[in-house]
Amino acid sequence: MTTAGKAPGQAQANLIAIPKDWAYDFLLFTHRNPKPCPVLDVLDAGETVSALKQDADVRTHAPRYRIWEHGELVAEPEDATDFWRDDLVTFLIGCSFTFETALENAGVPLRHVDQKKNVAMFVTDIQCRPAGRLHGPMVVSMRWIPESLVDIAHKVTALMPSVHGAPVGAGDPRMLGIENIHQPDFGDAVEPEPGDVPVFWACGVTPQAVLMKSKPPFAITHAPGQMFVTDMPDFAYRVG
What global pTM score does this model have? Predict the structure, then answer.
């Protein structure tokens, strides 16, 4: 169950919990790649409650999780408690679902929400800046936007850099190495309306693509599009 459109006005977050001996590498990776990986909170090793949602457990609050071993997806539970380890450091990373209410308020339609689908996400050929043992490509989310509203969508989201900010591209998907816009790597294929163009934002699923390439021994993430919904208002991440 995607959380797109499910919590208007609230900030949502990507989640990754990684062993403590990999946590510095990941923190450095987020610092070097702030566009796809803007950090909202970092928990101490073993800690399971974030200041962003003090009445929730990070092991159970997302609708679905992914369990990774050596870069391979081994399980997708609705509850990650049985897989939890006390050496895990949890990172909550900004999510573009957070700026969707602002887009709607500006008159920009959200085709995936209207179609009751997850947003489409694609692995690009843009390589993130490596950090320690971590490396891999950037993932983007794609929204079909009426061509006349692309500039408005850019301006609205540029004011929210902590949840990916302005788009990284619009128009021809091949500029990002995407061959088929109708076959996303994560999420759902969304149907455009006449006059729509694809617009791409850096995506917090990037760490999952990095796990596949870098193969740390263990990690827990949210399932793409099934986010950790916080108690923070979306406007808390708006600048200007």
Answer: 0.96
